[in-house]
Write a structure and sequence with these properties.
Blueprint lengths: L1 E3 L6 H17 L5 H22 L4 E7 L2 E10 L4 E8 L8 H16 L3 E6 L5 H6 L3 E5 L3 E6 L10
Parallel strand pairs: 4-5
Antiparallel strand pairs: 1-2, 2-3, 3-4, 5-7, 6-7
């Protein structure tokens, strides 16, 4: 299900994955295809650099389902928490329990390591309902993002 990213050969897929997660938003701006792709490439590059600077030790994986590349996940482990830096699935792989199963994998690791599992989500993000259903709680917030945490000691039994 998870395949360690191997380098430059993964970049075309990762860029298309990023585009798939932003396309509906940017298409509403009315730009032509070339302008959209140029903007998305700039944004993708900035996000990639930001993650590398903020989480240099993070582990990056391609998420696969039935032999197909379905998405990516970036995990940063520290002595105080496990952080899901980024989790993105292609639209055709969403709403099929793949994201839920991935989260359960890291929730179990969190439980075994006795560490909280943390992530951030857009306030308007579709994944927010999933995180809440799984027992993630808001730890911090700003105008755009919610910092959420799952802790096996504080979650309800039904959330596991």
């Amino acid at each position: 299900m998870l395949k360690k990213m191997s380098g430059p050969e993964d970049q075309p897929f990762l860029f298309e994955l990023y585009c798939s997660s932003r396309m509906a938003e940017v298409q509403a701006w009315g730009w032509d295809e070339a302008a959209l792709r140029s903007f998305l490439h700039m944004q993708y590059s900035a996000q990639t650099r930001s993650y590398q600077l903020q989480y240099p030790e993070a582990e990056a994986y391609i998420v696969c389902q039935n032999g197909q590349r379905a998405g990516k996940i970036l995990i940063h482990r520290t002595p105080i928490c496990i952080r899901i830096v980024d989790i993105t699935l292609l639209p055709q792989f969403q709403n099929q329990r793949l994201g839920t199963n991935l989260l359960h994998t890291f929730m179990e690791e969190s439980r075994e390591q006795n560490l909280p599992l943390r992530l951030s989500v857009l306030r308007t993000g579709r994944a927010l309902a999933l995180y809440e259903r799984l027992g993630f709680q808001i730890a911090e917030q700003n105008d755009m993002y919610l910092a959420m945490e799952w802790n096996h000691e504080t979650c309800k039994e039904g959330d596991r």
